[in-house]
Amino acid sequence: MSVAADIGTASRSQGADEARLWASLASARDAGSFCQAWLDLQCARTRGVSAGLILLEGTGGAFAPAAGWPAGPQEHPHLRKVAEATLANGQVVVEGDADDPDTMGIGYPIAADGRMMGAVLLAVTGLTSPQMQLLLRELHWGVGWIHSLVWQHRSAGDEGRTEATTAAMDVLAAMQEHDTLAEAELALCNAATIALDADRVSLGLVQGDRVKLSAMSHGAWFRKRSDVAEALEAAMDEAMDQGMLLSVPLVREGDPILLQQDRLLALAGKGAVASVPMTDRGLPVGVLTIERAVDADPFDARDLLLAETIAALVAPGIALLRREERWIGGRVRRHGMDGARALFGPRRPLAKALGIGALLLLLILFIPFAQFQVRADAELEGQVQRAASAPFSGFIARSQARAGDVVRAGQVLATLDDRDLIVDRARALGEVQQLDRRYREALAKHERADMSLAGAQLRQAEASLRLIEYKLARTRIVAPLSGVLVSGDLSQKVGTPVEEGDVLFEVAPLGSFRVVLNVAEEDVNYLRPGQQGRFAPTGLAGETVPFTVRRITSVTANVDGENVFRVEAELAGDRRAVLRPGMEGVAKVKIDRRSNAWIWTRGLREWLRLFFWKWLP
To answer: Which of 87, 99, 104, 178 is nearest to 141 (CA)?
Structure first.
């Protein structure tokens, strides 16, 4: 409780100090107090600052300190070197201290109309590269206040220019309240409309060699292809091409081209129009176009001065926001920093929970700990399978078994109708007896010719009798071995004819099974003999039986419009007693460990690979 109270007390104290510094900045009455308040606020908001200094141009063109931090006389030889380099080349200078490698000196120039007016100097310690970039960006924003002070000094003694500077600072403050480009543009147009007493203010930004309309006052949306929008862009292009402020009616002396300004005035039905180019460090940023109604006063020199002041102050901020809106250098970095603050900052528990969830999801997706398996429809069949066939053509008399029954070797499965055979047997037996008497009579009479003929006929009749008796002995269809009937159900075919050789039953021995997998052609390349898998028969209510892949054949078949390969596997485990040949189910073969993302996108990747291979040269 005491630690939390101390933290809360420190946070309230820091907030109170910052509020006091802002109040000092707002209540500054002269340049010295304004610079000191600004520097105190800047150093208080910046991490790692050990010293700060503001140099401004004084009388005679010499540069003198306008404010220093911390208070009191101090010597900064390194900052003096940085100041000389900054004032000499007019560029931002970041230079390390030879005596203290951890300390960096930063010099930020203050310029107006291409003339050096001063510099802001800071000595910072222990900042990383991203923190240094953030500091430079804050300086870029903050120096706008010093720019306003410079403009205020340049207009000293001119009450109208002082009012213009104050109004321009109000517009700048209104724009700086927003973080995104679109919000800042709309706030700029709305604030400029009030400051310039205008009917409408439009902002166009330079894109390539043209100016594109980006925002209009009092409207978050506008038609970009309307006649008014095209006329505004043409007027902005005219001002940017000539590089000067254009106004209708003409206020300043000169002979500018005002064709597009006149066209906009006639099309929009306004009383006055002015287009002010905006530049940042000599580079064009955009154009502000101000319009007044017909019943309003036309623009005068004071209005144009205020418009130029607003354009000069807001141009650096607009340029910076445009750079930040870029995808790589701006939006991604900004959103990334916002996300990092939400994840690692002291607040936003929901963001932290979502971040942890996203991290876990990435781990689940991309770490290869998921088991990759090849799935295939499978069927159970016996390793040995014997057939019980019809021994001769005839009719089915009875059926004692059907598919699925467990039978013993020699068990009667079905019986063929033997009534015709019994009649044929009796007739053949009588014929044999008759031929036997004839043969004996010929033998007794010593008639050799009759004896030979009767003997041949007797042997033929005896052969016919033996065939009939053979068929009678085989009218019972018996199981060739002990096992289970895989196929054959004659219970609904009693009385129907069968031909010799017709397969009536198929018997497979119990406990000697194999699994036949119908593997899709895109998966067969992953299979190798010896791989392990599990077979889930439909009839075992979700139970699985282990197996080992033994043979991968090159035989293909078309099943449901898909080419499949026959893969044979040997069953293992103690569930053979409840298995039956013909059972169908699903088999999965374990391959190796892969990531879930790889497994889930495998089909899509293979389809895309084949598609591009097919169509690309």
So the answer is: 178
